[in-house]
Amino acid sequence: MKFSAWRQPRVLLWAVASVVALGFLIALEIAARHYAGQPGPITNQVKEVIFAPKPGPLYAGMALMMVVLTWRQRFIAAGAAIGIDIVFVLVRWAIDAETPDGHFFGNGALWVILGVAVIAVTRRTGRERVLLLKGVGLGLLLVAGRKTGDTWLLITAKTRPAVLDPYLATADHALGNPSWLAGRILQAAGPISTHLLDLVYAQLAVAAVVAALYQLRNVAAERRFPSHHLVRTFLVIGLLGPAIYMIFPVVGPIFAYGPGTSGTGGVHWAVANLWPDTPPPISAPHPVPYDGITPRNCMPSLHTAWATAIFIHSRKGPRILRFAGAFWLIATLGATLGFGYHYGVDLVAGVVFALTVEAALRSLDRGWDRSGIQLVAYGTTVFAALLVSYRYLPMEMAKYPWVFGPLVILAMASVIYGYVRTTKLWEPKAAPAMQPEPEPQPQLV
What we know:
The protein is mostly helical. Helix content is 69%, strand content 1%. The chain has helices spanning 2-6, 9-35, 41-47, 55-65, 71-95, 107-123, 126-159, 165-171, 178-189, 191-202, 204-215, 219-222, 230-247, 253-256, 302-313, 319-338, 344-366, 370-392, 394-399, 401-426, and strands at residues 162-163, 288-289. It has a two-stranded antiparallel sheet.
């Protein structure tokens, strides 16, 4: 009986996914040590059991893990995490241990997550054990995703000595150089707008956790996870995106064309001192060398992709969540451009990338059919066509902006339209209300 259970397709799928994930983490660990001489995601995660970590990702992971717990268990888990952190802080203070800035506490959250895993294995059985382990896996995946992303960025800087920023800067003429325009607008808007957008940009993960917690709010009561939720999309975007970084390494306008009047950016490695005052001239682009520290993390804009995913998943929430999702998307787009972190063409690619990933995950969940396959294939084709155009047609895009600009926007809009149209067909149809049959009226004699 147990052997036949292991042969079920879903069990085999989870087993294969776990093996692939472990192999991927091991490969990143080896690559980080080989290319950068630094520990990878596995070593960094293990170190945080004892050494001071960043508290944000760990407590966010614990919050996601607690969706499988009852309210009483959540209070116990939160109290235990805080108590353990107090002990760690006191011990570090007593021995005068040095800790990096912002790494004061967070061990308690990791200890609680691991403790729930131990309880699930030793004290629970059946569906209850599986539910607790899924919660633990969800929390650890969020933390591991952050570690994996940091390692990926390090590898991009070490393995891609040349960047392709001149290609995107040239292609961006087709969209009117939006990063240059947004940079000047943000400078004129004053410090309040700058601080607000900086907060939105930096706390994107917090917004994602809030939206995910709303989606997973009934897990403890129903004792099961919904078939699809934001965390899945968030993690897959973060997993696949860096692979595109390796193919299309770009550092961004503030680094390639800074510092301008902002006083920041790639001072020694910049192609020219232009951003955000003067759009780059139209000239034949070519790869340019850059330092081995700055991540090549622009194409596509994953902040845009993640904000798009938050927007999509907030549409079925209450009004305040829908408003927050729309605000976070608009503010993230403004921040990515206004701070000079991305070109306009990065954002277009990020939207197409997010919608294609979301469509693929929803198709995987509901079962692949013709509409799902067509939508994913179309999104993938448009995304590939955008990257090929940016790389091999930037001069044409810059010389004929009134042709290529609308084409780029139209390509993105077509994917948005296809996603909305197809997913509406996937929504369950509400059964029509049963109308009571008219009763015969008594005849008057």
